[in-house]
Records
---
Amino acid sequence: MNRVSCPDCDLIIELPALRDGQRAFCPRCNHLLTHRAHRALERSAAFAMAALIFLILSNLYPFLSFEASGREQVMTLLQSAQELYKTGSQVLSFFVLAFIIIFPGLILISQLLVLMPIVLKKRPVIGCRLWARFIFTLGPWSMAEVFILGVLASLTKIASMATIVLGLSFWAYVAFSLCFLIAVTRLDRYQFWRIILPFPSPQATSGQTAATQGLAHCHICTLTSPEHLNHCPRCGATLHYRTPQSLQRTLACLITAVVLYLPANVLPITHTDQFGNNTDSTIIGSAIMMWHHGSYPVSLIIFIASILIPLAKLLGLFWLCWSVNRPNSPLPRQRTSLYRITEFVGRWSMVDVFVVAILVALVQLGGILSIRPGPAALAFSGVVIITMFAAESFDPRLIWDKIEESSRD
Ligand SMILES: [Zn+2]
Ligand SMILES: [Zn+2]
């Protein structure tokens, strides 16, 4: 039996040996502790290799081409970031480049560096644990599938004005994001670290929290170790009973996000110049316009991803922070699930920023028709990124600490 601590409620659980295809959940908060898949590391390495090849291919050919009024504009994947840079939106251009190419690329390289020696039964590479940490630290910041949704939304948006051709690189990028998704989801954090750096099970009593026994859960490699060590003996990450200043940091991020949420919705997200006529559109304005044009799916995607999700995430996290400090707050299991949802959905809000990046790169036909990013694009990406930090700073174990405290009193 291996003992593990639950990252969401800190309970020590005795984990039986799992067979292929089996999953283990925390009995208290229902967190998925681990799932064991058949030949997971080999398959993950194979898909990571395929994904890296497709990612390289997707940078070599035209991504999309746009033809209107007898003029054609061809866009490559890199240009989706480059054109933003040229229009003066350097920060936004860096975000797009990082989220769609650099971070997924770094994850794949790290994954191959760690997994290939295991698959080929060779000695591990130098800095193996650093590469392994990279995979899990950068994971939430890689947004390949969100970008694909952004491409589809922007195509529907401009399909009525021009002829659009999907280039070879577009299909390579779709293949990359599918392989990438499989490579990453095959890699179960607990099973992965157990194989690459085996460590004995901690001396702990199951059914009690790790913190009451002087132990801390490592958020990177899942090992439970004595907190006084300060650093995880397996992966080197800093050890804490609870995320330091969790509520203060979460609230600071949330307040910043609220401040940015206003300009993100009031100011224009794009400026369109058509035959000398300038039109500005806001996020809500473009969702309404798409609805009037009959593009209901795109209008709904923009409304849900850009308006509903950020707002629900802000309100949800504010409520979680408030409920944590209240005695006898009910529904800890449901509140933990709400936290997991806010953590999962946040990155999907980037879809509108990717739509802007694609439109700016693609629709550049001089005086006939051209699109530039508006100030709301940067403010909105700020909202998405800061609320992601807010969700990362919130420690769901605080929900359960209060319940334990109340039950002791
Ligand atoms: Zn739990
Ligand atoms: Zn660790």
---
Amino acid sequence: MNLADYRRAARAWLQANVPADGHPETDPIATAKEFMAKLHDAGYSGITWPRQWGGQGLTQAEERAFAAESRGHALPTYVFSIGLGMTGPTLVDRGTDAQRERFLRPLLRGEEIWCQLFSEPGAGSDVASLQTRAERDGDHWIVNGQKVWTSVAHHADWGLLLARTNVDVPKHKGLTMFVVDMHHPGVTVRPLKDMSGRANFNEIFFDDVPIPDEHRVGEVDDGWSVAVTTLLHERLSISAGVGMGGQKDDPTSLEALRTSVDTGDPLVRDELVELHIRDRALALFNQRLAQETEAGIFPGARGSAAKLLLAELTMYRADLATRLAGPESVLGDHPLARAISMAPGMSLGGGTNEIMRNIVGDRVLNLPPEPRVDKNVPFKDLKVGTQG
Ligand SMILES: Cc1cc2nc3c(=O)[nH]c(=O)nc-3n(C[C@H](O)[C@H](O)[C@H](O)COP(=O)(O)OP(=O)(O)OC[C@H]3O[C@@H](n4cnc5c(N)ncnc54)[C@H](O)[C@@H]3O)c2cc1C
């Protein structure tokens, strides 16, 4: 099918299958799961993933065409965004065939929800200083420790967990990646409320949780290279909005602002044009990264530039919406209040703006890297995180 036909078919499918007046709120997770199964049956879930593992084996061009058509709809897929954008692509790239066989199709069909267990109270930007331990016990690993800010973990069936397996080597060299069963006894999930009032992320405690060795992703002590794969996918998927579910419900989007403000005012029109230019610049940058990926050029650290631009655009939109709607827009029940209070989170989740700038400076612009005094020091001798 040529791209124009593909796009037409996607448009027709979305019109027929996404209710214009939103999805029922009564059981959002059941609604999301049902929708994902329909999306997969129709061939729109895992568009670029290999067919062998339940994907469609198509290219970035089809993925982008579907994303563009989805923009005007509210797809209830948010709870799957970590699986679709981060943990799933990590298993596609780095998992064993048995792991791909077991996990990828249920993810694409919305049967299982995933979370990403990297950050800890003492390890966010410097995630390689994490302290959650996994100790070998025969053909299992026993996990103890704490994670934090874990999005959608309260709904998750599986988590991609980065844990320390060796304290005698420098911090980046003693980590291993695992798939952990979030329903196993010993896993405690406690929701945390953010300032928008939502409890979408959690703190997680692991008490003697066993993980079979076949759920290890990558080699023992080579978890950092697997984590880098996840983080690259994370930054690209956040900036491209993978699984985020369109913009229909975002009251700070250009589409929404255009209908809610006085566009007869030339100053307002100037502001909206500026927003349009920024939106368009980011879309074109994302398109270029996607085209390069298709041509076999991996975007690498430039995904961090795209994520940084999206974080800045999100704050710009929220700020503009607040200025146009007036100070009451931040009050609790105002339609803009939630979007405005959630906007700063984009500058933190997936890596902060400062860290994105460090990465771009170091690996895109080849500026001198930050000094790393701990690079060759065994982890056990470091005073990092909450240790020591
Ligand atoms: C909405 C949201 C969802 C999230 N979801 C997840 C998730 O699903 N899974 C997960 O594992 N984590 C998740 N996180 C955690 C996120 O990855 C961390 O918050 C982030 O990496 C920053 O870590 P931190 O909060 O510990 O801040 P810190 O690392 O303590 O940083 C504090 C401040 O210091 C600055 N800073 C730190 N180091 C440097 C440096 N070297 N140079 C310059 N400035 C620096 C930072 O930019 C920041 O301003 C989420 C966070 C948010 C907000």
